[in-house]
Amino acid sequence: MFRRLLPPVVALFTVSALAACSDDSDSGGDAPAASDSGNADSGAAGSGGQTEAITWEQVTAPAECQCSDGSEYHYWVHRGDTDRVVFFLEGGGACFSAETCAPGESATFKPDLSGDSPDGPGGDDGVAGILDFENPENPLAGASVVYVPYCTGDLHLGTATQDYGGGVVVQHVGRTNATAALETLAEEFPDAGEVVVLGQSAGSAGAPLYGGLVADELPDARVTVVADASGAYPGDEAITSIVGGLWGIAAGLPDWPETAGDPPTAWSLPGLFVQTDEHAPDVRQATINTTDDEVQRAFADLIGFADTPLVELIDTNNAQIEAAGVDLAVWVSPGTTHVTTASDELYEVEVGGTRLIDWLSDVIDGEDVEDVHS
């Protein structure tokens, strides 16, 4: 069925499927990044209602790093505990056609960083969820952070300049951008004993790959990947080839001996978990999803799965990953929330007597956890 639908699917997908993903900011899916400025202090509300100062340093990336429209790219560093570091991959949609990528016309992704807060992640709205590093229940409280904004429409995986016609030329260089931030992490925190690669929405799609890359940079660190809200997206070979080709994903794939000779289609979104596990089996990998995530639901409808329960798509992907031998930690809770870690719902959700925040803390601490599924 999917292959018969592929031509109209690509048309729909390029026009509007990921518009749902671009609504992350409305649903609390993505914390905003920032525009050009120097160092900034951002108010972070602690659990006791007191305001603590979190200092973010803006780092201007090398010239080869760009947003989709060719504008300057930057990322953010917060220096906390140098032994514990978070590599945070921001979400925010995608584009792969003249319609979805056209400046000023597309509603499917964020093309630059000009509209973001100058105060760093969270900005004037403050912080919540996993970004509330002053909350004592947060397993990442006190950690250092390298925050990777997202403005290339390619799930942090692209390496290509794509001319879509009609004057729409896009820099799909998310892999280049995130690699620059990763190099800063390795340089600034070379002795980190623990690194958490945390991706939300579009950022969660590429998170497993960066888990393997962090392990390459810091082989002595305990690395954990937490991918929140992309578990339903299919690993179909056709769409992996078409969209991956537009973004130039193949050119940015790592030269891992364990995966040498694997075709580009092996690096689908579910496949990233498998490839990373083959290369770096000590990397802990976890996924968080909701059964009726409104953003993932909209995407699934547009690619021909309107009659398939979203949780079935999530379960199919998780089963595929685990069947390949990956010890995947799985959380699936009820509801329509897109990106549970983006709001204080993170501290409230409970399934079968297990709180998400406790489960996540155990995952990050390297403890054995049971899969939690509503």
Keywords:
374 residues; alpha/beta; Rossmann fold; ten-stranded mixed beta sheet; two-stranded antiparallel sheet; 14 strands; 21% strand; globular
Mean pLDDT: 86
Classified in CATH, the superfamily is: Alpha/Beta hydrolase fold, catalytic domain
CATH class reads: Alpha Beta
Number of helices: 11
* Strand content bin: 15-25%
State the helical fraction. 25-40%
Q: Strand order across the biggest sheet?
A: 1-2-3-5-4-8-9-10-11-14
| CATH topology description | Rossmann fold
Number of strands: 14
Low-confidence stretches: 1-51
Nutshell version of this structure?
This protein has 374 residues and is of the alpha/beta class.
Structure description:
- By secondary structure, the protein is α/β, with parallel strands linked by helices.
- It has a single domain, classed as Rossmann fold.
- Helix content is 31%, strand content 21%.
- The chain has a ten-stranded mixed beta sheet, with helices on both faces.
- The protein starts with a helix and ends with a strand.
Walk me through the topology.
Layout: H1 2-17, H2 19-22, H3 24-27, E1 40-45, E2 51-60, E3 74-78, E4 81-89, H4 98-101, E5 143-148, E6 160-163, E7 169-172, H5 174-188, E8 194-200, H6 202-217, E9 222-228, H7 237-247, H8 269-279, E10 284-290, H9 294-305, H10 310-323, E11 328-333, E12 350-351, E13 354-355, H11 356-364, E14 372-373
Parallel strand pairs: 4-5, 4-8, 8-9, 9-10, 10-11, 11-14
Antiparallel strand pairs: 1-2, 2-3, 3-5, 6-7, 12-13
Helix pairs in contact: 1-9, 6-8, 8-10
